[in-house]
Amino acid sequence: MEKVKVINSSQELDFYLNGPAYSLVFYSSIKCKVCFTYIKLCRMISQPFSKLSEQYPTIYFLKVDIETLIHPSISNLSTVPHFIFLKNGLKLSEYSGSDIQTIEKTILNNLG
To answer: pTM for this structure?
Structure first.
């Protein structure tokens, strides 16, 4: 069963960004009309990202729409899709792109 959590508030995102568990945040854009290429990449990676959430149940898989949520973590993003892997509020890894194998490799390298 897919366990991707769609984040709807800054407080909710802060909870996961600073929590003791592993979190993988998928920053996406689904509404930006001037960013069609980004939207296409975000849609393309969404289903494989959901499948990863099934494979790694100990990780919080989070999805943030940068067009609807205002949060400091979004202000430094230069492109989407963008992924940040965290634990205990510390950024372990970061990746911009739509290669699911790179994302899974990031997971495996950081799970210890």
So the answer is: 0.88
